[in-house]
Design brief:
The protein has 166 residues and is of the alpha+beta class. The chain is 36% helix and 30% strand. It has six helices and seven strands. The protein starts with a strand and ends with a helix.
Length: 166
């Protein structure tokens, strides 16, 4: 079990921050032959990205939504995200081609979606939590008095320690 950090924490990050959401909607659960391979391709991609310090992927977390899995990824560069998505030598391109080939056999059986957000500022708060989400992907720091309120953290941007030093 992850170690709980007592008190109030926030994330600390400077530079570009990209939040990438990718999900799968399983419209026909009985067609495991169509959605299972796509589901199982993601851990290979994440392993590949997390073992490459230059990939740009800082961290991720998986959740389950009403229609299927949802992966939240934190990237340090939009260019690196796009580079990975189009790299024919990486895990993503063959997995995407295989998904499309399977999906054409039974249109609508499984859906894939993504949303990309390039953030100018980010605010976070974690109370009595292990490092989670953005704090796990970047770094977790104690909330300082001048950043006690969400509005102050958002105004300061994504760098509470840099803002406090300024």
């Amino acid at each position: 079990m992850a170690r709980i950090t007592p008190g109030r924490m926030t994330h600390d990050h400077s530079g570009e921050l990209v939040v990438f959401l990718i999900g799968m909607r399983i419209n026909r659960p009985w067609r495991i032959d169509l959605w299972w391979p796509a589901f199982m391709a993601m851990p290979k991609m994440l392993r590949e990205l997390m073992t490459d310090p230059d990939s740009g992927l800082m961290g991720f977390r998986m959740t389950m939504g009403s229609g299927g899995p949802l992966l939240v990824q934190y990237w340090n560069s939009l260019d690196k995200l796009y580079a990975y998505a189009s790299d024919s030598t990486a895990e993503h391109r063959p997995a995407w081609a295989a998904f499309n080939k399977r999906a054409r056999k039974v249109p609508g059986a499984v859906g894939i979606w993504h949303e990309t957000f390039v953030t100018e500022r980010a605010e976070s708060m974690y109370v009595a939590m292990p490092p989670t989400g953005l704090a796990a992907a970047t770094s977790s720091v104690e909330v300082i008095r001048s950043r006690d309120r969400a509005a102050a953290r958002a105004e300061a941007g994504a760098t509470p320690s840099a803002s406090a030093a300024a």
